Please model this.
Amino acid sequence: MIRRRIDPLTRVLAYTAILVVALPIVALVVKVPWSTFIESVGADDSLVAIQLSLWTSGISAILCLVLGVPLAWWLSQSDVKISRIVRPIVLAPIALPPTVAGLALLGLLSRQGLLGQFIFEHTGWQMPFTSVAVIFTGLFIGTPFLVLIVESTFYHIPEEIEDAAVIDRASNGQLFRMIALPQARNGIITALLLAWARILGEFGATMMFAGSLPGSTQTWTIQIYHELDVNPDTAYALSFLMIVIAMSIFIFMRHPLVSTLTSRRNPRGELT
Model:
């Protein structure tokens, strides 16, 4: 690849963008109390919140994968008129403020909600302020991110591959399972990791819909919010740990071994 010279204005703008993103992260790292870092992260309240976030976000991410990938395939194959209506609805949570997202979930699943009222009347159970609410919030927030990336990946599958499968009389299910999924695995893995990171970092919608009950709904980010008033050192320590996880995801995605495993080969056996 030939390296082209970058004009001074573009370079200045690029460096400015780097500083805008990097300086707050650097400032947070500087504020981390390294002498008590292990003690802060290893406190009982911190560990409970971290464990809660990891297993609830993991379940949410798996559900996003199970539901989102077929949805992305359906959108990529559906009639343009239908997709123009459905796609904005599916992707809306990406742009919704967290409080609006939380209020929407309450409107659907609270005791007086459209669906929650029916559930409560017949079972006596309500979802808000439970760990299930944390999982459902993650599903609501994470699915659009996964669908957006995976649908784009499906669009980039070479048409000749799909045409060849159709000529060989592959059914729609076979086309999805045996052609689309293998060809799109790189994008699917990327989408899954990004969706999981987004779910892990969710705060506002979770606070409104699930509350902040220690051990059941007080997630990692909510714990940071509470510690900021009580013990700022712990808040900075927990925040740094979350930054490490976020950066690790992108480093993992760019690792040569991962790139090789998730790349596909063209008919000549070359990696693409």
Remarks:
- The CA atoms of residues 40 and 234 lie 5 Å apart.
- The domain at 45-219 is CATH 1.10.3720.10 (MetI-like fold).
- The chain has a mean pLDDT of 90.
- Residues 44-77 form the longest helix (34 residues).
